């Protein structure tokens, strides 16, 4: 509740300060459902907080992401703050570019490891300029979506497969660990295989075709993001199977397409909310800049998304300003973030 009050205060009542320059190194595509939502929420937060945001996209190419970090660090006029994502463990390389530069760095969504952070904080520069990360509990959303899928399956014996993102990105690893922990604890559920769709619809479509041929009795598919779920749905329909009925589906994200599929019942379990991380990071930066204190509070961003709830309705409308009001309102139910 304390965190919600702080965030609500700064988002709603912040006075007109000079705009603070913040740069976001977005590892995804601007047209990609999740990363597009992150951009939209970030822009709404920046407008509310009177901050200036620049976003660079590396289009799922972590080499370009590292190159962009070096180019930004070489600018004559540096941003005051940089938001980074440790996509495919590129975080340390990006940090190198900003060493001894007067730029505060904040990781969001995927952090460097605890050991890496502890080692960096031995250096006086990083003790000053490396801020606490804003990281959702990816293991928790894997757990939540898997439990929802198991509940939908009932007590009937079931074979299932998982399509994870990649083998190295912390979000992918942790979501899969959370889901597997649930599935492997069920006596009636058999996990046949885990594959890696690289977050891509076409890749997951090809994998689903093979998996449906290999395991014709599959009753459920868990996927780590919505694009991969779309690929599974294509493969199911090609085999004259009804998504959400013949084969149950679980996924993560908040794109208009996945929300429509959840409402229609083709997606049986949907988790999301982590797109809020960048907006919350801006609110934390606002407080840090104005008070010198950074909020030290654990944040749980994920929740199951159910049709005909206030959050689901706000996401369908893509009303980012209204969504900020809703999720950051301290009078709302505790634990909503």
TrEMBL record:
Gene3D superfamilies: 3.40.50.2300
Pfam families: Peripla_BP_4 (PF13407)
Gene Ontology cellular-component annotations: cell envelope
This protein's record includes keyword Signal: yes
Any one GO molecular function term: carbohydrate binding
GO BP: transmembrane transport
Localisation per UniProt entry: Cell envelope
InterPro entries: Peripla_BP_I, SBP_2_dom
Domain (Periplasmic binding protein): residue spans on this chain: 134-271
Keywords: Signal
Family listed: Belongs to the bacterial solute-binding protein 2 family.
PANTHER family with a match to the protein in the record: ABC TRANSPORTER SUGAR-BINDING PROTEIN, D-ALLOSE-BINDING PERIPLASMIC PROTEIN-RELATED
Protein's UniProt name: Periplasmic sugar-binding protein
Organism from which the protein derives: Shewanella amazonensis (strain ATCC BAA-1098 / SB2B)
UniProt lineage: Bacteria, Pseudomonadati, Pseudomonadota, Gammaproteobacteria, Alteromonadales
């Amino acid at each position: 509740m304390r965190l919600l009050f702080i965030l609500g205060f700064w988002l709603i009542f912040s006075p007109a300060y000079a705009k603070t320059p913040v740069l976001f190194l977005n590892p995804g595509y601007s047209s990609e459902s999740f990363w597009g939502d992150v951009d939209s929420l970030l822009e709404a937060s920046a407008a509310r907080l009177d901050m200036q945001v620049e976003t660079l996209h590396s289009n799922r190419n972590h080499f370009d992401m590292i190159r962009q970090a070096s180019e930004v660090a070489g600018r004559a006029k540096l941003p005051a703050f940089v938001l980074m994502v440790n996509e495919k463990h590129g975080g340390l390389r990006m940090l190198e570019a900003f060493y001894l530069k007067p730029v505060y760095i904040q990781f969001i969504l995927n952090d460097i490891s605890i050991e890496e952070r502890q080692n960096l904080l031995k250096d006086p520069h990083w003790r000053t300029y490396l801020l606490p990360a804003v990281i959702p509990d990816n293991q928790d959303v894997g757990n939540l979506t898997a439990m929802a899928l198991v509940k939908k399956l009932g007590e009937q014996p079931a074979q299932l497969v998982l399509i994870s993102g990649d083998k190295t990105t912390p979000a992918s690893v942790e979501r899969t660990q959370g889901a597997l922990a649930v599935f492997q604890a069920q006596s009636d559920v058999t996990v046949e295989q885990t594959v890696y769709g690289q977050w891509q619809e076409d890749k997951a479509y090809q994998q689903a075709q093979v998996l449906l041929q290999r395991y014709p009795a599959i009753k459920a598919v868990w996927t780590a993001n919505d694009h991969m779920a779309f690929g599974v749905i294509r493969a199911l329909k090609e085999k004259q199977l009804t998504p959400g009925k013949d084969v149950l589906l679980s996924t993560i994200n908040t794109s208009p397409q996945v929300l429509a599929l959840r409402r229609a019942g083709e997606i049986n379990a949907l988790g999301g909310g982590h797109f809020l991380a960048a907006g919350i990071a801006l609110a934390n930066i606002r407080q840090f800049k104005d008070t010198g204190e950074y909020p030290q509070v654990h944040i749980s961003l994920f929740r199951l998304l159910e049709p005909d709830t206030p959050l689901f309705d706000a996401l369908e409308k893509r009303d980012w300003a209204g969504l900020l009001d809703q999720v950051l309102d301290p009078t709302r139910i505790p634990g909503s973030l």
